Structure formats: C-alpha cells, structure tokens
Amino acid sequence: MNWRGIKINEDIKKMADLLRSGNTMLNMACPVCNNPVFRNKGGVSFCPVCNKKILVVKNIPDQNSRRVLKENIISNEEQEEKKYSQYNKTLDMLKNVLFEKISWITQELKSVTQIHLIEIYSKILLNFFQILSKFPAEIMKNQ
After folding, report:
1. How far apart are CA 46 and CA 28, in angstroms?
2. Considering 35, 36, 54, 115, which has the largest number of Cβ atoms within 10 A of its Cβ?
C-alpha cells in the first residue's frame, strides 16, 4: 500500500493492528530486532516483528529491573508445538472416553425396553457422533 509515494512498513501496520486490538506497547525493545515489545491481554510480552515471546526479568542485582534477556526468548514455534501436542493429547483422551461411553450406551440399549430411555440414549449417541465428526482426521486415524 502506498501513501504519498511512501510504502507503509508491514511491521508498523502489524503494530498498529495490535494496539487497536487492545495489546499494550511497552517501553522496551526486543533484544533481537530492536522493535517495540508488546503485552497481550493475557499478560504475555512478545515481539510482533520476530514472533518471539519475551520474558521480562525483574529484580536482577546490578541490572535494570526491566531488562529483556536474550537467552530467555522462546520462539512462538516451540510454544505452538507444545500447545498443539497438548491439544492432540486432550482430543485423543476425549475420543477414547467418547468411544467408551458409546460402547457402554450400546450395551445398555440391548437390554432397555422403556421408550424414553431408548430416546435419551439415542440422543446422547447422536451428540457423541456429532462431536466425533468434528475431530481432525489425524486424531480419528488412531481408533
């Protein structure tokens, strides 16, 4: 996008969007790229340009209490990988529980003769199958 012949820097646009969405720009710079550090609504400090989480260490003797330490920068890729792994484990556990419950309800349906119980069990099974249909294919492969 051009404005009076000057190309607007994508990094500046990204920072402006962060400010508009409620993030806070802090009075410190990223030790990697020297751009402003932001804090999201969850209190996590990060650099929007190099996509790194920034850990702020306070009360370090003989140093500025707001200093950003380079060695404590954690890449977003590592964080996302951990989240994705935890997410998959949780989905896998949920899938196993749902299949156990489906099996249990199926066994119960064999012996139930009361119409209202059959209706309740059928609705529960339908809900379970709808939930399972929304699972990622990679999670469902392991069944």
Report:
1. 11
2. 54
Q: Where along the chain do its domains lie? A: 2-72, 78-140
Number of other residues whose CB lies within 10 A of the CB of residue 65: 10
Contact 74, 82 (CB under 8 A): no
Nearest CA-CA partner of 37 in 69, 62, 61: 69
Alpha helices in the chain (DSSP H): 10-20, 76-111, 115-133, 137-140
Can you list the pairs that 10-18 forms with residues at least 24 positions away whose Cβ atoms lie under 8 Å? Answer: 11/35, 11/48, 11/49, 14/48, 14/49, 15/48, 18/48
Q: How many Cβ atoms are within 10 Å of 93's Cβ, its own excluded?
A: 10
**pLDDT tens per residue, range 34-80:** 889 999 988 889 998 888 888 776 655 555 444 445 545 556 667 77
Compute CA 71 distance to the chain's CA centroid, rounded to the nearest angstrom: 24
